UniProtKB/TrEMBL annotation:
Coiled coil: none
Pfam families attached to this UniProt entry: Ribosomal_L21e
Originating organism: Oxyplasma meridianum
The name this protein goes by in its record: Large ribosomal subunit protein eL21
Top-level taxon in the UniProt lineage: Archaea
Gene for this chain: rpl21e
Membrane-spanning ranges: none
Entries under Gene3D superfamilies matching the protein: Ribosomal protein L21 (2.30.30.70)
Cellular component annotations (GO), alphabetically ordered: ribonucleoprotein complex; ribosome
Keywords: Ribonucleoprotein, Ribosomal protein
Keyword Ribonucleoprotein: yes
GO molecular function, one term: structural constituent of ribosome
PANTHER family linked: 60S RIBOSOMAL PROTEIN L21
Family: Belongs to the eukaryotic ribosomal protein eL21 family.
Amino acid sequence: MTKMSHGSRAGSRMKLTKKLKEKGMPNVNRMLNKFEIGDLAAVKIEPSIHKGMPYHGFHGLTGRIVGKQGECYLLSLKIGGVEKKALSSPVHLKKIEG
């Protein structure tokens, strides 16, 4: 018997799989998204781009942009009563108006 993998993408088969019509690379506009500090953003992981991918446990959560590191954004997320920070490339984020 083999041991279970404990890599960064372990246990994310359904979360990081695209539908048949969505397969392939995203639009360039999605990679060039700009966010301001204080904006609301949802984590929507793009599985075809591995660079700057946040941990898959944050997929589907909404947080506030609190900073920038290089070309990635620092996102503050509230999980339960605990505030966590996630570093993500703009291709994995979706702007929330509000």
